[in-house]
Write a structure and sequence with these properties.
Length: about 210
């Protein structure tokens, strides 16, 4: 069984969406650290999301630390949106992705917020409105990857939003002015911004025909 002995059998296995996202996260972190240029990041992300097997994914991060071999390590995750926390023994984490590439994406109205949101904006604009959203978790992670794009988070006043993203010629704007409401959810904004921006603002006040309310 020569193919199994040299890893050829594993390389021929189909990779999942979770596998591709794992590689994409590694690439984004490398770009934020200055290990990849913007053009290299775009090229490798494109190759990542076009990959069909572990053999396709393997060379994409071969020259990046920590140099983890997806094939030798075996399939790192099962397909689907349910993932596990960094602690392998932790509970499953529901994850949703919102992606805008050369376009706009918006999430608003009445919707249920997962514990983890993965937001990508490449030459595009993403707007996420939490005003009427249903939030069941104490902490929400918004993982952003912005390249020449923008992400706007609309949250009610009093929400605790903590920014923990890396910026490379990028910008952030936090326009919340009120005090944090004790006992409310905490939104962690993590990831990186390259030549783009993240804006956190409260909902715009509605005007009636009789003037301001």
């Amino acid at each position: 069984m020569t193919g199994d002995a040299d890893g050829g059998g594993a390389r021929d296995l189909r990779c999942s969406d979770a596998d591709r996202e794992r590689v994409a996260d590694t690439l984004r972190e490398a770009a934020a650290e200055g290990r990849l240029t913007l053009s290299e990041l775009e090229e490798r992300l494109d190759a990542t999301f076009r990959s069909r097997t572990y053999g396709d994914l393997e060379p994409i991060t071969r020259d990046l630390p920590p140099g983890r071999d997806l094939v030798r390590g075996g399939p790192p995750a099962r397909p689907g949106d349910v993932r596990r926390t960094p602690d392998a023994h932790g509970p499953p984490v529901r994850t949703e992705r919102i992606t805008a590439v050369f376009g706009d994406e918006k999430r608003s109205g009445r919707w249920e917020v997962p514990r983890r949101l993965e937001v990508t904006g490449v030459l595009g604009e993403v707007t996420i409105d939490f005003t009427e959203a249903i939030v069941r978790d104490r902490e929400i992670v918004v993982q952003v990857s912005v390249v020449l794009g923008s992400v706007t988070l609309v949250v009610p006043e009093g929400i605790d939003v903590r920014m923990d993203a890396a910026y490379l010629l990028g910008d952030r704007k936090v326009r919340l002015t009120g005090p944090v409401t004790p006992g409310g959810p905490v939104y962690w904004v993590r990831g990186f911004v390259v030549l783009g921006e993240i804006t956190v603002r409260p909902p715009r006040q509605r005007r009636s025909i009789f003037g301001r309310r």
